[in-house]
Amino acid sequence: MKRILLPLLSLALLAGCGEETRDTAKASATSPAAAPETTPKIERPDAPSLTAKYAALRKQQIANVDYGISVKLDSESKSFSGRVIAETEIARPLQRPLTVDFSGGEVQSVSVGGREIPFEYNGYFISIAPEQLQQGQNSIAIEYTHPYSTDGSGLHRFEDPEDGSVYLYTHFEPYKANRFFPHFDQPDLKARYTLDVEAPGDWTLVSATRENKVQQLENGHKHWRFPTTSKFSSYIFPLHAGPYVIWEDDADGIPLRLMARKTLAENVNPQDWFTFTKQSFAFFQDYFGIDYPFVKYDQVIVPDFTIGAMENVAAVTFNEAYVSRGEKTQAERLRLANVIAHEMSHMWFGDLVTMQWWNGLWLKESFATYMASLALAENSEFDDVWENFYLGTKQWAYGADQLVTTHPIEVSVPDTDQAFSNFDGITYGKGGSALKQLPYYLGKDTFREGVHNYLKKYGYRNAELRDFMGHLGKAANKDLHQWTQDWLYQAGVNTISSSYQCTDDKITQLTIAQTAPDLITKQRPVLREQKIQLGIYRLQDDIMTRVAAVPVTYSGATTEVKAAQGLPCPQILNLNDEDWAYVKTSLDDKSVAQVSRHINAIESSFTRLMLWQSLFDSVTDARMPLTEWIDFALNNASAESNINVIRLISNHLEKATAYLYRIDMPQELRTEQLQSIENFTWTQLNTSPAGSDAQKTWFATFTEIAHTDEVLDNATQLLTGELEIDGLPIDQDKRWQLIVLLNRHLQGDYEKLVAEELKKDNTDRAQNYAISARAIRPSIQIKNEWLDNILNKRDQYKLSQIKAAAGALFPAEQLNLYRDTSIRLLGAVPQVSGTADTLYNKAYAMLFPVACSQSGIDQYSQILEQNPELMPALGRVLKNRKQQSEWCMAMAGQPGEAKAD
């Protein structure tokens, strides 16, 4: 660790900065300019969301706010009680009510300055009349109760089915903190928080600061008190509670704790968690040039979590999926290290400096996406970080950016519902990819300098995109206005291709051509500027070797690459070698021919990875027949030894299998191709090195594509132990994967397998596996039963259980069952959207498959036309499925809309 915890002097200085901000706000509130509101009248709708316009108005009303929060928790009841005192400084005389966000609870009383006042409460927010408040300081106290959540947001309650222990945790982004306590729930009203909690005596309480007093109460509970925090937004305020198992460590002066529930603890590998945490701290404190801004760092692994992780201040929460009940692959360890680094980077970019409103969500997430990979590439054991970035983040971005629902990276967010819908491949993947290419474009040291200056200036404050780009431009002495417009305010991914001429085996002319997609938005096609590296490959001693690398900044429709003149004539020209840029590439015919013959001779595994991806893109772009790609893959994949390439190929074989079921083709050909993939996968599973990650990868693919009685019988024997594969222990999670597979094809005594396994493994994870196994059975009765559960009995299920069922209900080979239930499924769309529950809408959207038929496309079109105002989390998915169904038909050579380059 190159930097240590903030020394006392720095803490004092930073605290002083916070006070200066507060004093400035006070001065503005009492200055002659502090006149009554003059903005146009903005009425707040009775709705469970917050609009950007109203948030801007409230920001004018409130100069400063700090909160004192008192909460009573217990392990038996379904709700909790609390009292909040909001020390609120009103900036100017109010002409309209001040609203306090509080969704889904009950309000017992509201008082101002100790005087109880009348109020209105509509279930979404509390309204306080202007005459009840004065310009300047107001102490607003609210007593309330609220039910615990079961959907992973607000204050979530989980009861462990194994031992009955109860665990609580908070998850607030983007607009759920008001399910925990009444307050002004918007990111630009940062506050300090002073917390005290009464809770059961055997619980540990975790918040943004470490407790400074714990008092034993007569009722067996304890009263925990926490010192006042620094200033930050309420969506990252944490409170986690329960009988957690705790591991402790230290990151060169920063106290570290890792926590997990008791029944999961034996599967946690604290050494990996602490190693990755300390490595990330060492990198970020040095890179940002700013010491860690908070006083400790806790990481809490929590159940029923709906996302991967969340950057709560000094108390990060993680999904339990990051804990394996068997040996992790190196890729899984890398994913863990990546998410740890991602959330830690938010402590500076997101928590210390926070976006003004949710249109800036992308910047903090994109920045963390890029910085996590940079941290691992620079300071970890992993030497294939950027290959994994390409394999995961980039492909996610490219996929999202070619859909009808793509959007600019920077986009208007009218309300908090829309903010949630932008948690997608553009927000994370494309934004992270755009930032990744900026250091190549500006220079690595210049980019770093700009980031440091930005964080230093806006610490404990809010900032906007122009602030960030302004600091990068100033550091580079470069006007980034056009770059910002082209990359951040325009949607779509460009494609580049090349043409070249050679004489005497030397390049005499090479040109890069750039095209833009014809987006359905009909916006102006954008030709962008960025820096790439051309990789020139030639066969030498039977090895396809890179003989030259040519950095080039291209722009416009064509760019002549003069630096390539005189270099060896390429046999393969890789246009985006080492993945510097965010762009699709189209290989020239000569390169395609060489790749087809020599894919395994290419020396660089990263280049092989990119070229395998390029070939599969040709399939989904309807430029290469699916069956031709399958034949190529099965003839070449067995010679591949790099695990990342193997992971890519196995993933593409799974996708190819799904397309074979969807696409209209002769049944004999379909059967032959499916059988070939199954045989190949089973062979790879049995011939991969014992205990290798390749073996584990092929096992996962096997559980997705196995379908014939003979191979399913092998699955049964693996489950019973009659058949063993050397080096592959069938751990508990693998057992459930096999059970889901056997239920998917009604193989053997599939119902009994579920019941018997639940007797051995009754964890919540096992219960979700069991739901998936039951929902995936190919029976119309089963499908209708689970649709009824999802639609009419959802209050009997946790959100995680609804997702387990929805994600399993219609696999590709069961499209006929989807068609049989589609009228009911689509008919319920208005009902689901009408719940205004974003998380539920998102879960329901998982039911809809790529239909790959004109009738399916027409159904999607009709429901969208009839319901133009659907919740974004559902409406966007329906639009995507319609488009993906059109692409699927184009792949089969049927009428349909192919992807446009």
Automatic annotation (TrEMBL):
GO biological process, one term: proteolysis
Keywords, in A-Z order: Aminopeptidase, Hydrolase, Metal-binding, Metalloprotease, Protease, Zinc
Cofactor: Zn(2+)
GO cellular component: cytoplasm; extracellular space; membrane
Residues annotated as domain Aminopeptidase N-like N-terminal: 66-236
Name the record gives this protein: Aminopeptidase N
Enzyme class: hydrolase
PROSITE patterns assigned: PROKAR_LIPOPROTEIN (PS51257)
Domain of life: Bacteria
Region span, Disordered: 23-47
Amino acid composition bias (Low complexity), ranges on this chain: 26-39
Domain Peptidase M1 membrane alanine aminopeptidase positions: 277-487
Family per record: Belongs to the peptidase M1 family.
Lineage: Bacteria, Pseudomonadati, Pseudomonadota, Gammaproteobacteria, Cellvibrionales
EC number: 3.4.11.2
Domain ERAP1-like C-terminal as annotated: residue spans: 574-881
One MF annotation (Gene Ontology) recorded for this entry: metalloaminopeptidase activity
